[in-house]
Write a structure and sequence with these properties.
This protein is α+β, with helices and mostly antiparallel strands and 75 residues long. It has helices at 2-12, 31-41; strands at 16-19, 52-55.
């Protein structure tokens, strides 16, 4: 519910909210990025459980966390 409220608040301010997951994955190819993000943001606390970014979009977007399936099809 908190994440949904954050999405709506961001949309009201013209921002989009995107979850960032890959950098939090624990597999060999992501080890360098995983280590950096944790040392940079939580050096003594532990593990980041959820990471998002809020940005101003470069184009108009739908006010939804879901996309229409037809938006993924390129003719």
């Amino acid at each position: 519910m908190l994440y949904s409220r954050l999405l709506l608040a961001g949309h009201e301010q013209g921002l989009v909210v995107q979850p960032v997951r890959q950098v939090l994955e624990e597999y060999p190819e992501m080890q360098e990025a995983y280590t950096w993000i944790h040392q940079e943001h939580v050096p003594s606390v532990g593990t980041i459980q959820f990471l998002i970014r809020m940005v101003q979009p470069m184009q108009d977007t739908l006010l939804s966390i879901r996309r229409e399936a037809t938006a993924l099809i390129i003719d």
